[in-house]
Amino acid sequence: MEEHGISHRTVEVNGISIHVAEKGEGPVVLLVHGFPELWYSWRHQILGLAARGYRALAPDLRGYGDSSAPPSVASYSVFHIVGDLIALLDALAIPQEPGVIEADFDRLGTESFLRMVFATRNPGPLFMPKKAFVPLDRQIPLPDWLSEEDISYFTRKFDKSGFTGPVNYYRCLDLNWQLGAPWCGVKIQVPVKFIVGDLDLTYHYPGIQDYLHRGGFKEDVPMLEEVVVMEGVAHFINQEKAPEITDHIYHFIRKF
């Protein structure tokens, strides 16, 4: 993506190296990816926001891509992640036994797994067969918003870093609850706009739609301004509907 003016650097924070992609001048917008993604998932928004007068930053979180991958599960708590992001900004003025799910990913093959995840339109749980699985690779068609070049980039980076770091975020869920106990019940007192696709599997977790649309979310986040549900859109919304998401982000942050 260097040909589009996106620059890359590695920043030393909290004893690890964090890779960050950036473009633009002006107020900073920090874009944080999920699983199984990379800074690259925000490539469209980086370009769109930079063109509108913002400095867009998108790191590879610890354990992902070109960032360091500490071996300890406990190194992936929410405090580590928030600490990394704060330190990064400052510097720039399903529990599983370790190895089990990684072995499943290895058996599927990195590209097969990523193609399956990115292409899924089923809002139910992702199913990975444990027996007699033959890697499908290019037999799995890509959605029209993801090119062969895109999937090759993701595959190269996950082949390099592996999946242990990314999965450790999920292994740390119980620890995060323990660490966050002192803040149980605290309201989130910042302006929020929430966007989700109606085919996103997280939108179909039991009770989540009632929580989002019948007052529970607003009670916990008093400054919630809007919940947007995009029809026919799945989990990787910032890639699938790149221009629309860039517009949503821009029109929201420009108010501040």
In short:
This protein has 256 residues and is of the alpha/beta class. Helices cover 38% and strands 14% of the residues.
Strand arrangement in the largest pleated sheet: 1-2-4-3
Strand content is 5-15%
Order of helices and strands: EEEHEHHHHHHEHHEHH
Determine the fraction of residues in helical runs and give it as a percent range: 25-40%
Unreliable sequence segments: none
What kind of assembly state do the chains in view correspond to?
A: single chain
Describe this structure in words.
Residues 27-95 form the AB hydrolase-1 domain. Keywords: Hydrolase. This is Alpha/beta hydrolase fold. The protein has 256 residues and is α/β, with parallel strands linked by helices. Helix content is 38%, strand content 14%. The chain has eleven helices and six strands. It has helices at residues 43-50, 78-91, 100-108, 110-119, 148-161, 164-171, 173-180, 208-213, 216-220, 237-240, 242-253, and strands at 7-13, 16-23, 28-30, 55-59, 192-197, 224-230. The protein has a four-stranded mixed beta sheet with strand order 1-2-4-3. It is globular and about 45 Å long. The two termini are 29 Å apart. The model has no long low-confidence stretch (mean pLDDT 91).
